[in-house]
Amino acid sequence: MAEPLCNAAVKKCKETMPQTPIFSSMLGSSCSGQVQPDMGERCVDPVYQDGNLVSGSLEALIERLVPTMDYYPDAKLKSFAAKIIQLLKEWTETFPYDFQDEKSMKELKEIAHRITQCDEENGTVKKIISQMTQNLLMALSARSQYQEIREKFRQPVTDKGTILKTKPQSTQKDILSVCCDPLILAQQLTYIELERVSNIYPEDLMQIVSHMDSLDNHKCRGDVTKTYNLEAYDNWFNCLSMLVATEICRVVKKKQRTRMVEFFIDVARECFNIGNFNSMMAIISGMNLSPVARLKKTWSKVKTAKFDVLEHHMDPSSNFCNYRTALQGAAQRSQTANSNREKIVIPVFNLFIKDIYFLHKIHTNRLPNGQINFKKFWEISRQIHDFLTWKQVECPFEKDKKIQSYLLTAPIYSEEALFIASFESEGPENHMEKDSWKTLRTTLLNRA
Q1: Which of 30, 150, 352, 434 has minimal Cβ neighbours within 10 Å of its Cβ?
Q2: 49 by DSSP, 3-state: which?
Q3: What are the CA-CA distances from residue 124 to residues 32, 90, 117, 156 (Å)?
Q4: pLDDT tens-place string over residues 154-191
């Protein structure tokens, strides 16, 4: 539990507050000689650069958070209690899963009991801690229920290959029959994005780092909380990409298919204007899937200028430099915005996760002298803080149940079914495609 404490406490590391045994059992080490520090760590002063902490021992950080047995004046008790309460409040609100097991909760209650002794006269501290504990239990309960619901709905993508083209085109429902306005669809996609982002918490993101550490150390982390929320969000991106491809490939007539392609280009552009980069990337990814990209006769009729601009923004060269510039612009707009509409920033989530991954892999947790590399944790903390700020934006768009129901429940073809639909719309053009088409048809007949 030491790492979450570092993250929660690092804001206070400049304050001079020495140590007492209160945190000893939680952190597993102290400078009092009770437990030997790891890697030859010593209680040396931390190193600052331009007023920011860049390195230091865990013990040095703790030494600045709590009193020692030698420095524990009565005059400072109330101030000390307020600071510890603030620390615990931030910790329990930001990383509630740290307290999901019985041992951690017991530690928290023991600390709370000691703190309340500092304010036995009016009972203010006791009330604050009671409310904090109640909020913690409610947060743990709510997140547990959300995971259970998510687990029930984690179904595989439906394979529609065996029923492809069984209905006349005139009776097939498509996205244009539900919503023909690109802006409105982009707004509904943004509503879904923000709803899913709101269920991603700091511990979900830190779980990535924890999981990588366990793999590096060849340990099996059986106690690690499964990242259902991250999986659900990643599945949403994939489903949206496949939905876009399905909507395009299953259209029989070339003119209507061209219209569908241009419609999704406009939706992606509106997502970009809103600041919804995740949906934008999912749409572009769906249109770049091979079954869609190979429809040359369709693309020849599409006005691709707007699509070229979108692809420029999502160009992967130079580590997605163009996208990062656009994201930075949206973030700056969000900081000075007066309305929720202008505050929306939804990053491409898989790139966001990769950034945390590389920050963790490139920079070591400790410096060669054994001190904690706080510069690394500051950078990871900044990334997560930005995400938490963006996810708190209240969606300014009214929910359209009909549109969202279609987006979330419409049939999605598997990759195999997409190729079948694509080949039926525009036949194979070379030997490789002809072989693929023959293999797919044979497979389909064998299943029948």
Answers
A1: 434
A2: strand
A3: 32, 18, 11, 52
A4: 343 444 444 444 444 445 689 999 999 999 999 999 99
Region label for 33, one of left (φ > 0), alpha (ψ between -120 and 50) or beta (otherwise): left
How many Cα neighbours within 13 Å face the side chain of 71? 11
What is the residue-wise DSSP string for 323-334?
Answer: HHHHHHHHHHHH
Q: Residue for token digits 């239990």?
A: 137
Q: Which two tokens stand for residue 400?
A: 């359209």
**What is the Cα–Cα distance from 382 to 222, expressed in whole angstroms?**
29
| pTM value surpassing 0.70 | yes
Q: Which residues contact 421 (CB under 8 A, 6 or more apart)?
A: 164, 165, 246, 249, 250, 291, 413
Torsion of CA 298, 299, 305, 311, to 10 degrees: 130
* Alpha carbon distances (Å) from 348 to 122, 280, 396: 50, 8, 20
Question: Alpha-carbon distance 327 to 315, whole Å?
Answer: 13
Closest CA to 297 of 438, 435, 427: 427
Q: What is the DSSP string of 274-287?
A: HTBHHHHHHHHHHH
- Is-contact 359 379, C-beta < 8 A? yes
**Residue owning tokens 């045994």:** 21
C-alpha–C-alpha distance, residues 386 and 413, integer Å: 35
For residue 47, what are the β-bridge partners?
55
pLDDT of residue 116: 80
| CB-based contact 184:270 (threshold 8 Å) | no
CB atoms within 10 A of CB 261: 24
Question: By the 8 A CB rule, do 420 and 241 touch?
Answer: no
